[in-house]
Design brief:
By secondary structure, the protein is an alpha+beta fold. The chain has helices spanning about 30-40, 50-65, 85-105, 125-145, 170-180, and strands at about 10, 15-20, 70-75, 110-115, 115-125, 155-165, 185. It has one domain: Reverse transcriptase/Diguanylate cyclase domain (Alpha-Beta Plaits). The mean pLDDT is about 90.
């Protein structure tokens, strides 16, 4: 019997390994921050693109195995958001992420896909349900209050939806691109 000590490597199959280490209690918050920053966009708290696509691939595999549907919503701020200063735009994008997080279900995936685009992955939801959620997202974003916006300006998003069953030859990336091709004003 071997007692584990710092530096030992545990290998579980070809893709999973763990390295044993010890740390002082005051180091733990820093390690947790490194982990969070590797998976989440720091400005929005939403998953980053890599983490989102990894999880979406898992959702697609689950859907194919269990003969359920997975849908995707890809949305972005309206073009007039490009007129905002960089600092205000990042603030607006963070607000949109908060609104989206409050609108989607806990089990749904939310990720920042590009600078001003987000993707929502929806397990067990057909295309019509995704379209209804996209409409709710649009309404929630429009109702959001941003005091720094120019007088009379309102936030708005454009969204597109795609479904695994409606586009059965597609994987996670294909779903996201199919949703992008359908982006329109709601």
């Amino acid at each position: 019997m071997h007692i584990l000590s710092p530096g030992d490597l545990l290998q579980f199959g070809p893709y999973v390994s763990f390295r044993v280490s010890t740390m002082a209690p005051d180091q733990e918050p820093f390690i947790q921050q490194i982990y969070r920053s590797a998976r989440h966009n720091p400005a929005t708290g939403a998953s980053n693109r890599k983490h989102l696509l990894q999880n979406l691939r898992s959702e697609v595999a689950y859907s194919l195995l269990h003969h359920t549907d997975t849908s995707v919503i890809r949305f972005r701020l309206e073009e007039n958001a490009g007129e905002l200063s960089n600092k205000l735009k990042e603030s607006v994008i963070a607000l949109v992420a908060d609104v989206a997080r409050d609108t989607v279900r806990t089990e749904d995936l939310l990720g920042r896909y590009t600078d001003d685009e987000f993707v929502v992955g929806l397990r067990g939801i057909e295309l019509k349900g995704a379209a209804r959620l996209a409409q709710r997202l649009h309404e929630a974003v429009q109702e959001a209050k941003v005091t720094e916006l120019p007088k009379g300006a309102r936030l708005s998003i454009r969204a597109g939806c795609a479904s695994l069953h409606a586009k059965s030859d597609s994987g996670a990336s294909g779903l996201v691109e199919a949703a992008a091709a359908r982006i329109s004003t709601i």
